[in-house]
Write a structure and sequence with these properties.
Strand order of the largest sheet: 1-2-3-5-4
Largest sheet: 5 strands, mixed, barrel
Number of helices: 3
Shape: globular
Distance between the termini: 54 Å
Radius of gyration: 18 Å
Strand content: 35-45%
Structural class: alpha+beta
Order of helices and strands: HHEEEHEEE
Helix content: 10-25%
């Protein structure tokens, strides 16, 4: 009985320890610096959490006229606060312009480098992209 409990506890601790490692990734693993994006749209959702903050905007495709919901990754909440962000910097419904890089798989996901707020303020997104990429 004790052996089964010890195995269960060790397995659970091992799985919990592995989750942050799996969830975090480098810029180059998911995004392509050679596929720059510049998107303007209304904010539909904000996820202010570690290890990355995400927000979503509705963007009208210029060719088809169809509205697409893009997911945009930024740095950690702590990194964003060092760049001048607060949890109230961006609100649902705000129209923002985002510059960054597209996901390698061509999905509607991007890594934000900077965000131009509705009031004209430009905030940097604490991106994991480096200048070498």
């Amino acid at each position: 009985m004790r052996t089964k409990l010890a195995i269960f506890v060790a397995s659970t601790v091992g799985l919990l320890a592995a989750v942050p490692v799996v969830a975090h990734h480098s810029f180059a693993a998911e995004f392509d610096a050679n596929q720059p994006i510049k998107l303007t749209g209304a904010v539909t959702k904000i996820e202010w959490m570690n290890p990355h903050t995400y927000f979503y905007i509705d963007v009208k495709d210029e060719k088809s006229g169809k509205v697409e919901n893009w997911g945009l990754e930024m740095g950690s909440p702590n990194g964003l606060m060092r760049q001048g962000w607060t949890r109230n910097s961006m609100k649902i419904g705000d129209v923002v312009t985002v510059e960054g890089s597209r996901a390698k798989d061509g999905s509607l996901i991007g890594n934000a480098r900077s965000v131009m707020m509705q009031n004209g303020q430009k905030l940097f997104a604490a991106s994991s992209q480096t200048q070498q990429q």
